[in-house]
């Protein structure tokens, strides 16, 4: 389905512009991701080769030695890039209407949500079904604690720590530890 400018809703989505999640192209992409997630989430811990193959099909990039413990959920999968040696624990939700890049050797706790999807602040645009996305980047060797939520547009620098249950609304500098809602630099010594 093309808009008045000739671009499809998928093209607008990938550009981070307002789009509507309608049409055969996005529906097919979503069904593809759903099929692969269901297959992945049905695997057992002894099926590492099968898990790796499914993730390779689902994701935009999967580095070597990546571990994602099911259940795992995403919108499309192809906008997710996972660096070598990254570990994602049970129940992760990565809403990838645009890019999610996670660097090498990251540790991501249970039930973490990384959400690129956003909605217009204008209620009339929301009523019409518009949404958008802003990419998220997580650097290398980052630890994100259980239940943390990373919101659209956030960049987390290398070696940073995000405390469990934190809601990250702003960029996190390299090496920083942030905690709370909204996440702020921690003053507690480790």
Provide a brief overview of the structure.
Helix content is 21%, strand content 26%. It has 4 helices and 20 strands. This is Sugar O-acetyltransferase.
Topology:
Blueprint: H1 9-14, E1 19-20, H2 24-41, H3 48-58, E2 61-62, E3 67-68, E4 72-74, E5 80-82, E6 87-88, E7 92-95, E8 100-102, E9 107-108, E10 113-115, E11 117-118, H4 123-127, E12 130-133, E13 136-138, E14 143-144, E15 149-150, E16 155-156, E17 161-162, E18 167-168, E19 177-179, E20 184-185
Parallel strand pairs: 2-5, 3-6, 4-7, 5-8, 6-9, 7-10, 8-13, 9-14, 10-15, 13-16, 14-17, 15-18, 17-19
Antiparallel strand pairs: 1-12, 11-12, 19-20
Describe the protein in words.
- Helices cover 21% and strands 26% of the residues.
- The chain is of the alpha/beta class and 190 residues long.
- It has a single domain, classed as UDP N-Acetylglucosamine Acyltransferase, domain 1 (3 Solenoid), CATH 2.160.10.
- Helix 2 packs antiparallel against helix 3 (48-58).
- 33% of the residues are buried.
- The model has no long low-confidence stretch (mean pLDDT 95).
- This is Sugar O-acetyltransferase.
- It holds the Pfam family Mac.
- Belongs to the transferase hexapeptide repeat family.
């Amino acid at each position: 389905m093309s808009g008045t400018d000739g671009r499809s809703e998928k093209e607008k989505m990938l550009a981070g512009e307002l789009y509507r999640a309608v049409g055969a192209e996005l529906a097919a992409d979503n069904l593809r991701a759903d099929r692969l997630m269901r297959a992945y989430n049905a695997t057992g811990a002894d099926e590492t080769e099968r898990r790796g193959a499914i993730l390779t099909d689902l994701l935009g990039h999967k580095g070597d030695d990546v571990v994602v413990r099911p259940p795992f959920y995403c919108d499309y999968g192809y906008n997710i890039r996972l660096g070598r040696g990254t570990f994602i624990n049970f129940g992760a939700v990565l809403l990838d209407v645009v890019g999610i890049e996670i660097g090498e050797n990251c540790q991501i706790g249970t039930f973490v949500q990384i959400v690129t999807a956003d909605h217009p602040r204008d209620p009339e645009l929301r009523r019409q079904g518009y949404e958008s996305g802003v990419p998220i980047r997580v650097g290398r060797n980052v630890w994100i604690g259980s239940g943390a939520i990373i919101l659209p547009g956030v960049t987390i620098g290398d070696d940073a720590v995000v405390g469990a249950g934190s809601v990250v609304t702003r960029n996190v500098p390299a090496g920083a530890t942030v905690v709370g809602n909204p996440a702020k630099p921690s003053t507690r010594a480790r």
